[in-house]
Amino acid sequence: MKRGYAPIQYSLLSPDEAPLMFGVHHHRATQDHFDLRLECGSFAHSWVLPEGPSLYPKHVREAIRVKDHAKKCLGTEGRIPTGFRGAGPILLWDKGTYLPSLASNSSPEESIELGLQQGCLHLTFRGEKLLGAWLLVRRRTGWLFQKLRDAHASDLDVLRLDRSVLTGRQIGDL
Questions:
Q1: SS3 string of the chain?
Q2: How far apart are CA 51 and CA 33, in angstroms?
Q3: Is the separation of the CB atoms in 127 and 104 below 8 Å?
């Protein structure tokens, strides 16, 4: 028997119907990586993407769950000073709205919490670089982040689009 991740009915709404904000930061700290932040209530659930996102559905990326961040972190960019945890430049690589697949009679926030408990989040992004259907799934060793097949899937190396969506700068400029 196959393991099921969502034993309840889900429906997918457009991000226009109940938009939540997301941000993806390029963070050059001890290790160069990307941070995925998903607004949920008054905070942002967060994952580190060591390789960054890929628009190609066969490229499954590791996603390391980290502590939740303040919602204000979604749209910021700058530099964490030397001597502080995560010291280095942080560039706002992508931003936009997203919506999880909604569990029956649940708000988007409730659906996110249920998805986290079950270990599977189906998300629709409407960003400047990330668009369409994505999957965050928990495995024994951690989380995985994957673009699902849709009209926005591509073999384009999206990481080559390396400018900030906020300022147009590159990470070396910060």
A1: CCCCCCCCCEECCCCCCCCEEEEEEEEECCCEEEEEEEEECCEEEEEEECCCCCCCCCCCEEEEEEEEEEHHHHHCCEEECCCCCCCEEEEEEEEEEEEECEECCCCHHHHHHHHHHHCEEEEEEEECCCEEEEEEEEECCEEEEEECCCCCCCCCCHHHCCCCCCCCCCHHHC
A2: 6
A3: no
Nearest alpha-carbon partner for 130 in 96, 102, 101: 96
Domain segments of the chain: what residues? 17-156
pLDDT (tens digit per residue) in 10-56:
344 444 455 899 999 999 999 999 999 999 999 999 999 999 999 99
Q: Name the amino acid, one letter, at 138.
A: R
Rounded to whole angstroms, the Cα distance separating 65 from 44 reads 12
* pTM tops 0.85: yes
CB 137 within 8 A of CB 146: yes
Integer CA distances (angstroms), 56 to 28, 70, 148, 149, in order: 24, 30, 8, 8
